[in-house]
Amino acid sequence: MRMPVLFVALTFLGLAPVSAQVTDPEMTCAAYLDMVAKAGPTPKTGDAATDKMAADMDGKMKAYCTANPKAKASEAAEKAMMGG
User: Fold this and answer.
1) Where are the domains of the chain?
2) What φ, ψ does residue 72 adopt, rounded to 5°?
3) 67 partner at 20 to 30 Å CA-CA among 32, 50, 76, 78?
4) Position with higher pLDDT, 84 vs 25
5) DSSP H helical segments within the chain, as ranges?
6) pLDDT, tens digit, for every residue of 33-58?
7) Run of H or E including 23
């Protein structure tokens, strides 16, 4: 139940590029970091506020996942969104 709510919330925040990367609820942080490294930087939207928000979320997720590689990427997204 939490996962669909998280994706809807991220979409409304304009963070669809970040949330689109976490498509598997069982994806580990290690797999997420590997995927992000291969995908490159978060695409820019042209809206400075949205781009800053996406970059902040991306940074928080990468920091959490680096510290917790066995955790779920969805948990990292939730913690980044909630400021944890």
Assistant:
1) 2-82
2) -80, 140
3) 50
4) 25
5) 2-12, 16-21, 29-39, 48-67, 73-82
6) 999 899 877 778 888 988 898 889 98
7) none
- Characterise 70 by phi-psi region: left (phi > 0), alpha (psi -120 to 50), beta (else): alpha
Which residues are within 8 A (CB) of 29 and not within 5 positions of it... i.e. 6 or more apart?
64, 65, 66, 68, 69, 70, 71, 72, 73, 76
In whole angstroms, give the CA distance from residue 53 to residue 12: 12
- 72 three-class SS: strand
Report pLDDT for 67.
96
Task: Return the DSSP state at 70.
Answer: T
> What confidence tier does 17 reach under pLDDT thresholds 50, 70, 90?
very low
